[in-house]
Amino acid sequence: MDPLKRYSGFLEELKNQARHRSLRAQSGVDFTSNDYLALAHSGRIRDAIIRALERGVPSGSGGSRLLRGNHAEHEHLEQDAARFFRTERALLFSSGYAANTALLSTLPQRGDLIVYDEYVHASAHDGMKLGRADSLSFPHNDVTAAECAMRTWRQRGGTGTPWIVVESLYSMDGDRAPLEDLSVLARHFGAFLLIDEAHATGVFGVDGRGLADKFEGSDHVLVLHTGGKALGVSGALVTGPAVLCEFLVNRARPFIFATAPSPLSAVALGESLSIIREEPERRIRLAALASYAREAIQQRIGAWTPQSQILPIIIGQSGPTLRVADKLQAAGFDVRAIRPPTVSEGKARLRISITLNTDETAIDGLVCALEYAMHRQSDVLSALR
Ligand code: PMP
What we know:
Shape: globular
Oligomer: single chain
Bound molecules: 4'-deoxy-4'-aminopyridoxal-5'-phosphate
Strand order of the largest sheet: 2-8-7-6-5-3-4
Radius of gyration: 22 Å
Distance between the termini: 49 Å
Mean pLDDT: 96
Low-confidence stretches: none
Number of helices: 14
Helix content: 40-55%
Number of strands: 12
Order of helices and strands: HEHHEHEHEHEHEEEHHHHEHEEEHH
Structural class: alpha/beta
């Protein structure tokens, strides 16, 4: 049998289940990206990169940070970030995916227990799979269940260190973790608390430091700030105790065995941190746009969405979700259908992302198109109500 047939068979199956994906060019008004503060096209970042090129900063790092790839720009960014987030140390990774896999495969040791929210990102799951610690999920935002899992583990003789893994703002639901309660729980059990701030950094908190701001600097907290979302670049900064960062430098395979990020992206990220500190008006405008959209969706579609820039409209099955997304795209609005396995079975949704790449007029147009697309599909409306 033609060995390629196996793969075309898999793809056919995905198509039959409305789960097939393909790459396409960007088009339509942006209601999909994570470029929340519209920094991906920032003039300040562009100028910072040009100035860096002019003073001889290279485009490539040339190797691993542990070999010749460690540049002054990386170190400068990390020092800046540690000051900004008020932690002992910050460590740069080439992506949030690499950082999460590094953290979870490297820090929890054999005999430890990771308890994680069922909604954490795929990169956290992959890190746990690569690591040596046992892991258990708890129902979304259920602190009592997390507590119960750790208590039972201790009662059964678990002697290692527990790790609690959450996102501060969930990427597909737009709701927040109960960080205060989780931090108390972590202290009570002598656990580390790992907070993924991918969708909160730059958007929330004093100076845009995120939702975990008040927990940073604590010796039981590690935070992940991704650079490709509100910061408008790429890469990720892990902030936390110096000893854990030093351990990652020595042991984290995604850090050790990969070419360091371009020194230019370190320069760009440094400029992003300055922008989020110096231009609070971006955050204020984003919050206003998000509440405008939330109200419009509530009034015209009857769907409740959380208080954030991520507005999910859960439809249920993949087929109808995909059909509504197609209609919106045909009307010029870039909204994507998020389907299993990214979200769980029966929870397919439109994920409307509000960014500074839109305005009230675009939001009015989107909600109008959404109402029209949904009314033409009775299965969609009945799923919502
Ligand atoms: N964590 C969360 C919660 C995310 O949503 C993402 C990206 N979708 C990542 C980590 C990975 O970050 P990156 O895109 O920088 O690899």
